[in-house]
## 1
Amino acid sequence: MDLSVRIGSLLLKNPLIAASGCFGYGVEYADVVDLSSLGAIAVKGLFLSEREGHAAPRIVETPAGMLNAIGLQGIGVRRFVSEKLPELRARNATVVVNVCGTTLDEYVEVSRILSDAEGVGAIELNISCPNIKEGGIQFGCSLNGTYDVVSAVRKVTRLPVIPKLTPNVTDVPSFARAAEEGGADAVSLVNTFLAMVIDIETRQPKISNVVGGLSGPAIRPIAVRMVYECRQTVRIPIIGMGGIADARDALEFMIAGATAVQVGTANFVDPFIWTKLVDGIRDYLQRHRIARVSDLVGTIDTHASATERSGV
Amino acid sequence: MDLSVRIGSLLLKNPLIAASGCFGYGVEYADVVDLSSLGAIAVKGLFLSEREGHAAPRIVETPAGMLNAIGLQGIGVRRFVSEKLPELRARNATVVVNVCGTTLDEYVEVSRILSDAEGVGAIELNISCPNIKEGGIQFGCSLNGTYDVVSAVRKVTRLPVIPKLTPNVTDVPSFARAAEEGGADAVSLVNTFLAMVIDIETRQPKISNVVGGLSGPAIRPIAVRMVYECRQTVRIPIIGMGGIADARDALEFMIAGATAVQVGTANFVDPFIWTKLVDGIRDYLQRHRIARVSDLVGTIDTHASATERSGV
Amino acid sequence: MPVDVAAEVIVNRALSADYNLVALAAPAIAAAAAPGQFVMLKANAGFDPLLRRPFSIFEILRDGGGTPSALTILSKRVGPSTNLLYDARAGQRIACLGPIGRPFTIVDAPVEGWMIAGGVGLAPFATLAESLRARRVETTLFYGARRAAELFHLDFFRALGVALVLTTEDGSAGETGRVVAPLDRKLAARDRQAPVMLYACGPEAMLAATARIAARHQRPCQVSVERVMGCGLGGCYSCVVPMRGEDGGRHHVRSCIAGPVLAADQIIWD
Amino acid sequence: MPVDVAAEVIVNRALSADYNLVALAAPAIAAAAAPGQFVMLKANAGFDPLLRRPFSIFEILRDGGGTPSALTILSKRVGPSTNLLYDARAGQRIACLGPIGRPFTIVDAPVEGWMIAGGVGLAPFATLAESLRARRVETTLFYGARRAAELFHLDFFRALGVALVLTTEDGSAGETGRVVAPLDRKLAARDRQAPVMLYACGPEAMLAATARIAARHQRPCQVSVERVMGCGLGGCYSCVVPMRGEDGGRHHVRSCIAGPVLAADQIIWD
Ligand SMILES: Cc1cc2nc3c(=O)[nH]c(=O)nc-3n(C[C@H](O)[C@H](O)[C@H](O)COP(=O)(O)OP(=O)(O)OC[C@H]3O[C@@H](n4cnc5c(N)ncnc54)[C@H](O)[C@@H]3O)c2cc1C
Ligand SMILES: Cc1cc2nc3c(=O)[nH]c(=O)nc-3n(C[C@H](O)[C@H](O)[C@H](O)COP(=O)(O)OP(=O)(O)OC[C@H]3O[C@@H](n4cnc5c(N)ncnc54)[C@H](O)[C@@H]3O)c2cc1C
Ligand SMILES: Cc1cc2nc3c(=O)[nH]c(=O)nc-3n(C[C@H](O)[C@H](O)[C@H](O)COP(=O)(O)O)c2cc1C
Ligand SMILES: Cc1cc2nc3c(=O)[nH]c(=O)nc-3n(C[C@H](O)[C@H](O)[C@H](O)COP(=O)(O)O)c2cc1C
Ligand code: FES
Ligand code: FES
């Protein structure tokens, strides 16, 4: 049974990627998970320099989900390269670095530094974080901005470039297309949904940044729809995510059109989820006599539905 | 204690409205609920003529939510006026009619018929149903479309005109503004989020229409954010909804900026929810020594958060 | 006029690895219920699962004085809510809304009542059999299951004087195969003049087959359909069945209020 | 190296309308735990609630041979997860991930150990007291609660030879008022040369007051902080505490891996 999938030039041993911001820099989990057993690890978003992020409280639980506004706290790309990357390399982790920027130049510069470092497998461009005012989402909410960032980074690196798209737009597929036209090797979707929770007793927002990003099972049906739509629109691989909590959910994203998937929030609930996911996917492929997991990608059958519909 | 709120010229005895599509034509609930005890009843969306809607399965449960693609089955506005409205009137229900159309003319015509009928309190323009191909959302996803429908209907009726906005756009407040400029008395938000669920065993969508609209607690934090944003943008009242399941949730929407709220999915779970909601709101106002529920609208306090933020 | 009761679980008995029988203290609902009606249950607080689920009223339990005190549900595990029902403990409370829906139309002798049940589709027939037998209607239960161990409550029906025609898919009891086969044979063998009312409940394919057989033998047939139901009260339009209207056109009928019992010959089985 | 155990509830004892004590069969975690460490619990399957919650390890239970067999949690009801813990039944399984976090640094005699607990902030001090007393450290527990009935486990501490200084807000036991008042007085009265290590756990305001008092009296102080925690393993950055770094700057430190026990004088209390 072949669980491997390909994202541009990057071969993943399985389609399971730890979602950015939900797995620290990977090294935090070295004690509980064999880092090399994951398809890849998308490390926490990195700017050029350190950032302290927002004040606590930074998260609040919501129905079948959670809201976060971490504010992209991070150690900056240079410290990442010197302090974290060697351990990740030593542990044979496939590393996707989530790249942030407040300007186009910053995206380019961070990507350049990563391209020169040893042990980076791909660059995921975070143009979709809902939790910071400057940068990021301003690129991710504009077709030109998306195209510009992708093509600028494309020019400075041979690593696969994977812009991560925001769901907070009317038409996600058009952004996927802009990314493809800019030279992206794949797109990741979705980042979190802009949302808020108010404490009715104090009438204050429950997280310090007022608004934050919604993740977890609650958003899964919306995310699956977006992956499905993008699959109809672009030819590059899609990395799907949003609320995956078990192997069935991961398979649902793949059937909708994702070549690989990321798991974020569910890893908080169960840091040992990864072997369960791999086992669940294996079991499914066996039951359905599918030899390669990649054969499953985008195999959704809407025909029966359409027939019924036309019958009405 | 004063629970009444005003939506344009319409005075509601309390801010609780049964959400369109979740309460039939109201008469179905006459046995279990005193229809006159609700602030209002938004009846199921009506076109000019009858519609049979999509084939079953039309709903599927999702984490803390549900997906529906009913396809706006309905008896048409004329049969509604002759067969349902008299009973609603007899039961002293305040009636909001959810108006659908495949063309601008249809919205106008349906609205005109309702304006001539006795017992209609307001018109809610459904320009946001994600489940039908023609019409509806095509107006709701375009600023000009929104403006055009609202101003056209505005011209033919004295009833309050309340366009219902879709959450499936990048910038909901700009649609609220277009509605306001078109002469809307209020806006309702949100309609459901376009979403899908796939049965991994059959690889077919779990509802016959392939995609459907996500409602229920899962979407509440996103809906609250959208109400909050719109409250900063327009001056007309906002009718907030999306996942309200108890009085606390209703109050959260009001604090975020909603003058009234609608409850849909939670009414399925508990058709006797209405008295619980009224009691819960009363209790809260008493504890907080607030005389009028309308004094609560938009009183969110983001100041403490901002201070904390600037401290970082 | 349905009521909502936080019904205490009186007893929960596992009948097999999948089936269980749970008794709920809901006297008001038990007193008002007619055969074929159902309740909407929610066995958990909170949102996981979120919606109620429909279940036929299986039996009406009575206190010493004969007053209805409780109802039972025959449940088959297929997902989260039926899992919760399977694991329900005595003393726990389950939200129970009912009675809901259009019941069976009960016939009088000399019409015979033939009930056709597939699997958990047995559920509405315990009360129907009681009503029919109370009117001294000759009653037969055609009952098919996967295996002998999943044929429940046979003694109950025997004690009522209901004739049993059993089938199992694996042949471990009764005739091997589907329950519609003996139905078809017995109808063929029956005198055209001797009236029979058919009542069917079970998987959609079984209902469709029963409807075809009923039509072929020109017998009236009431079927209790199963649709995913969001509300049970006509509010959501999720539960529709395509039916032929008087105008001959295709209409989507809400099975929670116009059903669950519907006339087989008006349903469009596609 | 934390492990995840589907720990069986051995016993759950309600201590008051809000507090309960639940014993979990998690020998591997019990054996590895150090005072001040915590576990991440999930008492339900499914998504309501979704995330685990952090709880201090209250006691380590041992079998006849002295081998750790279980741990207990002292829980106070404040929301959905603590409600589930309050209602937990023996036999039920609770997902228990641990031990996690940086424990207290244990002192040796002649340093005295003074523990300051507010409400459920008592939780980490049972194991700490045992460790301190095992080293024959003179140990005092300053313990404040709302009322006498919410002062728990006093006999346990007395039996260990821990001196108790109790306060209640309503004056129903010990001194009336907050627990930091007697702490302040006793520190003022104490010989500057006689070393004391302060250990504090409780509401944020109490911790801040303790930190101020410690600073004023120039005593080292370890506080166990409480932050909303998404993961407990350093993955989410939700649990940060603003601290002064070596560079003098303000840094957000993840209290799940750098804490929960932190040096009071490095925290920026704002
Ligand atoms: C009027 C009526 C009476 C019923 N009586 C009984 C009964 O007496 N005993 C019993 O065990 N079951 C009965 N059912 C079916 C029962 O409602 C479903 O098995 C139940 O909803 C499944 O819930 P779940 O959460 O366990 O699984 P889910 O995950 O909700 O569903 C599991 C599978 O069952 C299907 N399903 C869900 N709801 C329904 C539904 N309402 N009808 C048909 N299929 C559904 C789903 O599509 C899915 O494939 C009845 C259904 C109806 C409409
Ligand atoms: C290291 C650590 C050890 C803890 N030890 C214990 C213990 O031994 N016994 C005990 O009863 N409680 C302890 N807590 C607090 C406990 O985690 C919270 O009470 C619990 O998460 C509440 O969950 P809930 O679902 O019941 O309520 P929720 O609805 O999640 O929360 C209710 C309220 O508590 C606040 N809250 C939620 N999580 C935390 C948190 N992690 N820290 C502080 N406030 C929070 C929320 O903001 C909200 O205002 C500890 C917390 C930490 C960080
Ligand atoms: C606490 C938290 C922090 C996150 N940080 C980042 C980040 O740094 N960069 C990024 O691209 N996405 C970030 N995300 C988004 C996730 O990578 C993912 O897109 C989202 O959570 C949806 O997946 P999930 O539902 O599996 O969590 C973060 C999410 C969470 C919950
Ligand atoms: C089954 C169903 C049918 C609906 N039909 C309509 C409709 O006809 N017109 C409309 O404007 N909104 C319709 N909606 C949307 C609701 O009115 C409401 O906007 C949405 O469900 C969010 O609220 P909730 O989370 O409280 O359900 C429907 C929703 C559901 C669940
Ligand atoms: S179940 Fe809602 S209309 Fe039938
Ligand atoms: S709780 Fe996730 S980083 Fe500390």
## 2
Amino acid sequence: MAVEKMSIAKALNESLRKALDTDPKVLVMGEDVGKLGGVFRITDGLQKDFGEDRVIDTPLAESGIVGTAIGLALRGYRPVVEIQFDGFVFPAYDQIVTQLAKMHARALGKVKMPVVVRIPYGGGIGAVEHHSESPEALFAHVAGLKVVSPSNASDAYWMLQQAIQSDDPVIFFEPKRRYWDKGDVDVDAIPGELHKARVAREGADLTLAAYGPMVKVCLEAAAAAAEEGKSVEVVDLRSMSPVDFDTVQASVEKTRRLVVVHEAPVFLGVGSEIAARITERCFYHLEAPVLRVGGFHAPYPPARVEEEYLPGLDRVLDAVDRSLAY
Amino acid sequence: MAVEKMSIAKALNESLRKALDTDPKVLVMGEDVGKLGGVFRITDGLQKDFGEDRVIDTPLAESGIVGTAIGLALRGYRPVVEIQFDGFVFPAYDQIVTQLAKMHARALGKVKMPVVVRIPYGGGIGAVEHHSESPEALFAHVAGLKVVSPSNASDAYWMLQQAIQSDDPVIFFEPKRRYWDKGDVDVDAIPGELHKARVAREGADLTLAAYGPMVKVCLEAAAAAAEEGKSVEVVDLRSMSPVDFDTVQASVEKTRRLVVVHEAPVFLGVGSEIAARITERCFYHLEAPVLRVGGFHAPYPPARVEEEYLPGLDRVLDAVDRSLAY
Amino acid sequence: MTVESTAARKPRRSSGTKRATGKTAAAAQAAEPQLVQLLTPEGDRVEDPEFAPYVADISADDLRGLYRDMVLTRRFDAEATALQRQGELGLWASLLGQEAAQIGSGRALRDDDYVFPTYREHGVAWCRGVDPTNLLGMFRGVNHGGWDPNSNNFHLYTIVIGSQTLHATGYAMGIAKDGADSAVIAYFGDGASSQGDVNEAFTFSAVYNAPVVFFCQNNQWAISEPTERQTRVPLYQRAAGFGFPGIRVDGNDVLACLAVTRWALERARRGEGPTLVEAFTYRMGAHTTSDDPTRYRRDEEREAWEAKDPIARVKAYLLASGGADEEFFDSLESESEALGKRVREVVRAMPDPDGMSMFENVYADGHALVDEERAEFAAYLASFEEGH
Amino acid sequence: MTVESTAARKPRRSSGTKRATGKTAAAAQAAEPQLVQLLTPEGDRVEDPEFAPYVADISADDLRGLYRDMVLTRRFDAEATALQRQGELGLWASLLGQEAAQIGSGRALRDDDYVFPTYREHGVAWCRGVDPTNLLGMFRGVNHGGWDPNSNNFHLYTIVIGSQTLHATGYAMGIAKDGADSAVIAYFGDGASSQGDVNEAFTFSAVYNAPVVFFCQNNQWAISEPTERQTRVPLYQRAAGFGFPGIRVDGNDVLACLAVTRWALERARRGEGPTLVEAFTYRMGAHTTSDDPTRYRRDEEREAWEAKDPIARVKAYLLASGGADEEFFDSLESESEALGKRVREVVRAMPDPDGMSMFENVYADGHALVDEERAEFAAYLASFEEGH
Ligand SMILES: Cc1ncc(C[n+]2csc(CCOP(=O)(O)OP(=O)(O)O)c2C)c(N)n1
Ligand SMILES: Cc1ncc(C[n+]2csc(CCOP(=O)(O)OP(=O)(O)O)c2C)c(N)n1
Ligand SMILES: [Mg+2]
Ligand SMILES: [Mg+2]
């Protein structure tokens, strides 16, 4: 058995290592991913072991990184691209939205786009502007992309494996403030489906749905609620495109109440789609409207205010209470 | 009295002309906006009358256009930028999202960003790829931007005036397939608020909410429904950021049913936010879940299929029926 | 001192100016730098010790072949324009006037080379053996391209200006990784030179020494904007600042385009990295069938360029040198007619795609939401059939 | 022929190579082109008939001023680094080693000129009269900048690499429209040169002949990537291909930076358009306090650059020329101490912003959603106070 305790960061590093090792077509590209091993050290040691030809320090130009990754994919490679921080993906947005996402459809299926775009995202690390954002909705809205985010080390390891194996472009959001959280990883396991949600905690009275960094907060909230006698189920969505609505629906049909939590702004965040669709699917089951807890319609604030901006235990519990009060 | 019948295209042209005439700080910038008058002739004749210094043909680079417009705004100008087609706004997305939207907050209010980004958007004109998209949700999710779309000539005229007068960046989506639809414009009127929705048709049984090119379809659907004895109210949202939820709520509290219609993909489209929020606000009023009619999760299809993709009368009426069947 | 300016640099044939000011730079632009030319507009061969050797192998037969390519491409193009007028196509982007640039560069390629076109490279497609009718699907509105890029190493047309130059660079990086000696050619326009992506492609290709030829067809216009709206110095000069050579060639001279592209491709194959070729040519027609060039350019300009027609000069040379006789021209005429006929027939027979096709190929591995929407839409359509 | 390559161009002082290949282009990079220098690392003045006149007016008093600027900037910078270590700042981006580039260029500016900095231009901010403690807010995490750009014509720090070069260009276009003779200076790094935006700024500024100086501090590194990951030829050469002059200056020589920037600004004021200045310098410290340069660069490199310290050479010259006495250095030392003390005090006293402040200034004209969320959040906070 090969179960190891490791951090999410380490799990990602191991996962990249395995991919580079198994498939000679896999490449790792990005700013500072080589000698430095990335600003978060996710690619630590990879260039040393796989060479500059496979682990590529790129010029400082995100559009160029994704654009050349597309070309490499057309040549048969499977590039795994690193965007240094969430806020710096936008120069590449055109290449992602108009080219990467649409190439397979444009070619009527005759070319594939096995490109993974890794993006450390979210706040809570006390950073300066552009280093704490959660832009996932801006990708999930775009057809042709798949969008996922792991919440724990095991998922980090396996979801990245699966993303790299996917013939579709995957935007892989890494919960940067959880990079150092540890968990068990079974590197020999047979993983589940990449886009399937996971019931992270069972409960009967209300469902919390979240992904990435917010799963931990929701689990804590569920534990706290349990002390008050409220039984809260937590669904780790794992994928924002597609969203596994079936799992959420099954949970809500049981609990009859749903609160969606993410760091991204609530307005047109992933929670809006989940609220809309689950309300359609469970109209006669819901005892309360789907509530959402998330960021505000404001630029991500300076570090010394971010704790107020980020959904924390209290704000989630407040929403739980409000939902239960219906 | 100065009421004139004119097309939306003409109304926009007149509105730009008025702005250039009244305020020497107003500039018009973009690809082919000068001699050609823009590919849709919205800027027709303006360079001739106001000179190359005010109506500026730019190099072919959208990031450069928006980026220099930001600099001009910092210098005290009020640039009105044209993006030639919806699908070509993405090279400018970084400047719009990380700079234009955030500058005022970054400066704690000490600089203003009176920049209008005009984007002809939507399908139905039989065009090739990238010329028929509806990316408004990708802007409405971003704090710091205002996002509007007129549905008729009068609104086109007045909303553009107000957008130019606004000290905030406004993404101004023009319903390109309605450019030649005519309507009365009172150029001396005192306009209403830029972000206030308008009840375009009163009804009692169900509310249709739409904006831009879909308002016309909704009005036709309401007329068709009326023949079948169904009284449908139509709300022209006019603004996607902020959304005038009060007006929608008032309508839904009366009709108890809501269908939101837009060309953009349903998944994480503006309709998802409206559904989520109106369900929260009107939970005990709604007789049916908020339904949404829109584009599919697929790249905008080739012209010969677009009629199937675009929400038309039948699909809207189908949703009306489904809602009423609850 | 280390001041660098266009004006300060004196390419051998260019008319440099002395001082590095905005004004003199503008002057440098006005005084057109000379360009590589092997065949004059009048049909005379030009001595050029540097580039003539690259086409020394071109026999009369080969030249007739190039001529045929250009004539058939033009014919195809005219047919497509006519089909647009007849409502069979929604739009057409004509290559009229750019045949030499496209056939010359296209015929310089080896089968294993890879092409990244814009939306106007019908002549290059022809050289690659892409059936011309394949190109019409997207202009008719039945698909967004849809041919298999790998069957002729000819990528899909790219509409977002400049994007494909990065794809080309990445593809070329892949060739280098594979240790192959193929090369890539990326087409783009004068307008495209302003896009960030094109300049990033220059940076990436130089840094990785990628085997790519950037082939800029400077047809003088980006829709209504003349090249001066994009640059104040000749475009080929852009390359030097990124660390690779740039060269200007007479884009209406098929031999010169062939020679210069061969030279650039050889550099790429030898591991010498990217090259920028600026083919100086002219868009004889409208930007597309939606465009009205009378709004922004004078007839005289077009007329001046008509005298430099890329096809006429080869015909003149073939006739004068005895490289072709009337029979050749006649039989080409019939071939041309036949091509026109076939194009018309194929286009008119192109079926509209099924509505449900829009759900296909969004993903390679499937997507639950697409499946759900497909099923819902199918049920909706079925409800009409049931007479619902 | 019209082949253009770096190698083919011979700037007066640069060591050009002969053939336009990737290899020779790389060689051109290796053989460093010379640069404008007026004061050697040893503190000797250099004769330069072209640029010395631009600093002919600099008296001993002025030179002491420049020296003082550099010393105080370095002290401020060191203080900020220390404050970060103490947890008072979340991050700091040190300018250590780049004082001459920043003070030289900063002191070339007129009050009515406008500056667009990156996140590292603490020395330029100093020249503009921006209180250094203003710069610390964003690094402490109490704001995202927040000073009034117009009070010192010093724009906010921009973190998204390269973006500000377009703002600078637009601002300069506005100056030209106003008929003013002010100029703009846009700072960016060697890494930034790869961004599309920077190259688009070159295009726009050239096409509109905008009065802007692009001041690239080539500090040899973009975090862990050496300049060769961004370009294979010296960066100043990029400009020529866009039609304006580029020049390389010793970025550790405050006089040369002053002279060259003045020259470039005068060009701008005279309506001659943009200039690219590449200040060849070195990032002596880590990229930011989060960075660990031992992972990617050798100590010897840093040591070699220590010998070229921008401050030491001015001190040597001032001492040798009698331009300053011990008293000057002593009093500067006390001034330095006082500055350090004030910075510490001000930073430590900086209050955390109120949570509700995040709803402020999102819009100038207000926004219903922000109002709604503000009210909801206020009510939520109030619910705790009520002991709810
Ligand atoms: C990013 C982007 N912006 C705008 C357009 C609209 N557009 C299509 S072609 C064109 C002009 C292109 O000029 P050029 O690059 O010179 O190529 P040419 O059409 O002359 O062959 C423009 C502005 C586009 N397709 N993509
Ligand atoms: C668009 C963007 N991508 C990535 C980053 C992360 N980043 C911050 S500084 C930096 C290196 C910048 O190097 P350079 O331009 O040489 O400036 P220097 O830091 O050396 O002054 C990077 C990659 C960023 N800030 N913006
Ligand atoms: Mg052109
Ligand atoms: Mg640097």
## 3
Amino acid sequence: MNQQCGIVVKYFASLKEKLGRSEDYFTLTRSMTVSDVWAQLNPELTPPEQLKVAVNLDYVSWDWVVNPGDEVAFFPPVTGG
Amino acid sequence: MNQQCGIVVKYFASLKEKLGRSEDYFTLTRSMTVSDVWAQLNPELTPPEQLKVAVNLDYVSWDWVVNPGDEVAFFPPVTGG
Amino acid sequence: MITIVQETFNPWDALQTYQQQMELRVLRTLGATNVFVGSMRDFNQEVQVERMVLEYYPGMTEKQLGMITAQANEQWSLIDSLIIHRVGEVFPTDVLVLVAVWSAHRADAFEACRFLMEALKSQAPFWKKECVAGQQARWVAENTVGYKHY
Amino acid sequence: MITIVQETFNPWDALQTYQQQMELRVLRTLGATNVFVGSMRDFNQEVQVERMVLEYYPGMTEKQLGMITAQANEQWSLIDSLIIHRVGEVFPTDVLVLVAVWSAHRADAFEACRFLMEALKSQAPFWKKECVAGQQARWVAENTVGYKHY
């Protein structure tokens, strides 16, 4: 896989445990939103309503278009502090 | 002076310096409000508008009636903290 | 606890010491602590303040601080609180006041601590006299209101 | 300064150390410090929590904390701020988070500290998993809103 054409997808906390994995590598073959990325990688699971998504360490909405080289992350509401 | 019939009047901070004294002892000969007490002890000085008054360690208004044995205090707005 | 102190104090040491005296069963219920520390700046209204003298009204000051603490306990769900106020001669960087509030949840600690500070500044009989470089010492006229942003 | 720590820390020691490194010319401008300390209680929603595991998102967590600190600096007049957040395995009475804000005047310190805590709790990627006596470990679902009284 050419890293430049791929994206890294990370999962955290309860989502990571539910999916049983913490990271996916994925090669973009067409223009995709984060919503498309989720559907491609987790077709069996409708994303929980509260699920958050970040691209390159910033929060984005589900219609955000990803680019090759991006780091995408899905995670439940944060509970720190 | 019989302590039981008298009141102690205290002055603090800038008021104490202005008056040049920190305490007066005063024998009540009739029913008096704190306003009367001030007028009796400091006839030459109209009390500054912002001046605070306390009787027995609690804030009171200027029409509060004093009793023998009371501790009356006059002081400028507080500036602690 | 409410204390009036004549000597310089270190707020972090004071908090350490105070919290060390709490029982473990109390410590295990603490979720939130909010602390305010007020210290002496060397400038006030454009003039350089070299030192200050803090006067108070022994008896009334403690009573008023006790009353505002009781009010805070009525209004919020608090586990403990600590007020330490300095009096006497103070110099720049000296701590003037420490207010600390312990509670289970953060809203109570934040709000009660701020309430205590504002109430202290408007009710507790303390007066500051500033000694300004090259000028006669002057009494601070009045405290500012602290809730300016609301 | 923003720090993520893996080990137990004492908030009052941390503040002492941090403030000791400030320059005297900075210390002389400080009028107000507001500190929030969040610690682990042994009860949450009626069940006894024996320990917790705090997960975070290395990189994003620091970035988000940096962004909220920048926002606080835009909105209030601050001299310095410090955020320390614990991750990994924690036990009752352990400190989870410390937020400290230094300013010239108290309203800025109070408001910025509270803003930072609320922003941290809603934006910074940390997740708590509670290990409850006699039950399976469970992820905390969502943080409460802290401004309940306003």
